[in-house]
Specification:
By secondary structure, the chain is an all-alpha fold. The protein has eight helices and no strands. It is globular.
């Protein structure tokens, strides 16, 4: 059983990452904040909700994405049932954030610009899957569950995204993998 102190600790630990993920999914700040609060209210009111959770971070990401999709569906009640499928592709816009001190350096600006160009060359789903795999370091099974796709499809999407990046930005991809 989680106490309110445990839940507050979880909130403090994960709120920034959850907010960033919700923002990358294209939702407005207020909607993401409300959805995050809804997730934690549900945890607080359902004491048993975390009993069988083996990976709390994954659970929170999945809960947030599901809540945001529910909010999105409520805002568009006239949508076809086919469009409400959780595996339907939704926009995923990822900004590359570089600390203020590094932004001042011209080299860092060039790298940031090139990474953004590369990410913009990908589809929304490819950007999301690259973010989850390489920024959040989820394994393929977790990504597949989060995106409501098979593990095979997940691996295929990651591979396709990387292949696409290599075809368009070959030398730059090699350069960026050498950066610390």
């Amino acid at each position: 059983m989680k106490t309110s102190k445990d839940i507050a600790s979880l909130y403090t630990q994960y709120v920034d990452d959850l907010f960033t993920y919700g923002h990358y999914l294209g939702f407005k700040r207020e909607v993401v904040e409300d959805a995050i609060h809804d997730v934690f209210v549900k945890i607080a009111t359902d004491e048993k909700s975390l009993n069988d959770v083996s990976n709390i971070k994954f659970y929170l990401y999945r809960s947030l994405k599901n809540r945001l999709l529910d909010i999105h569906k409520q805002q568009k009640p006239h949508r076809d049932i086919e469009e409400m499928n959780p595996s339907t592709e939704i926009p995923f816009n990822m900004d590359v954030n570089v600390e203020d001190l590094l932004i001042e350096k011209e080299e860092q600006m060039q790298i940031k610009t090139e990474i953004e160009q590369m990410l913009n060359a990908l589809t929304d789903r490819q950007r999301e899957i690259i973010y989850l795999r390489y920024v959040q370091e989820y394994d393929y099974e977790q990504i597949a569950a989060l995106l409501h796709i098979s593990v095979h499809s997940c691996r295929k999407l990651v591979s396709k995204a990387i292949t696409s990046l290599r075809e368009k930005f070959g030398p730059l991809i090699t350069f960026l993998t050498l950066l610390p």
